[in-house]
Amino acid sequence: MLRMVAASPLRVALMNDFEVVVRGLHAMLKPFEDRVSVVEIGAGVTVEQSVDVTLYDTFSEPQVDGDDFDGVLESPDPGAVVVYTWHLDPALVEVALAKGCRGYIGKTVSGAELVTALERVASGEVVVEPATSRQPAPEPHSPGDWPGRAEGLSAREAEIIILITQGLTNNDIAVRSYLSINSVKTYIRTAYRKMGVTRRSQAVRWGLEHGLTPDHLRRVADPTTDESQAGA
User: Fold this and answer.
1) Are the C-beta atoms of 18 and 215 separated by less than 8 Å?
2) Distance between CA 213 and CA 209 in Å, rounded?
3) Is residue 93 predicted with pLDDT exceeding 50?
4) Does domain 10-137+214-231 have CATH number 3.40.50.11540?
């Protein structure tokens, strides 16, 4: 359901399967709280509150061309759904918009640009930023936070190790993450060096021991008191 928003701040829900990811997004948006009010943070759950915009971070998640993504759109009242991602392939953008998403935002945008894009979406526009490309967005200055960051993993390396921890093969990971098989193998090699492991079984154990498994969290924020309730 798309609603026209006459006044700020926007009511925004953040979604991803990892608490650290959605909390990182929240921290990115906090400097703009006069324009954006994060009223729900969900890890492994659907949005329950009525919001203007749901921002879906695809970190380690199924891409929009899979059936799993449809659950986001089928939440009771997600407002305008905006995808926030590295994966800027025009085919994915086309699928997202065909399914009813109102925005598709690459992780190369700044926090201020992201907020502006959300405002444009909430006002009725369909927004795709930046111009799409068949190449994934560069990673050197990945925004937000992610599991494994404190241990030295880059966001892409962490995403690959998460999928390994979940039992995916290299080919499965390449399809899921829209990377070439050679890129997947490169990320695995660099991640293994940082983790101090040499075998897949060791990587799985490392992932389990360092929180690289999905969370289950609902955080409902009161914008007037900045208090929250966590639970499912």
Assistant:
1) yes
2) 9
3) yes
4) no
Task: Specify the pTM.
Answer: 0.81
Q: Please report the sign of the dihedral spanned by the C-alpha atoms of residue 161, residue 165, residue 171, residue 175.
A: negative
**218 with 46: CB under 8 angstroms?**
no
So where are the chain's domains?
Answer: 10-137+214-231, 155-209
Q: Give the distance, in angstroms, between the CA of residue 56 and the centroid of all CA atoms in the same chain.
A: 5
The CA distance from 137 to 146, in Å, is 17
Does CATH number 1.10.10.10 belong to domain 155-209?
yes
* Distance set, CA 21 to CA 41, 55, 150 (Å): 10, 12, 13
Read off the pLDDT of each residue in 32-58 and give the average, rounded to a whole number: 82
Q: What gap in Å lies between CA 103 and CA 101, rounded to an integer?
A: 6
Give the relative orientation of helices 200-209 and 181-195 as an angle to the nearest 10 degrees. Answer: 60
* Residue 214 Ramachandran class (φ > 0 left, ψ -120 to 50 alpha, else beta): beta
Residue 139 pLDDT > 70: no
For 40, 160, 232, the CA distances from 229, given in Å and listed in that order, are 10, 31, 10
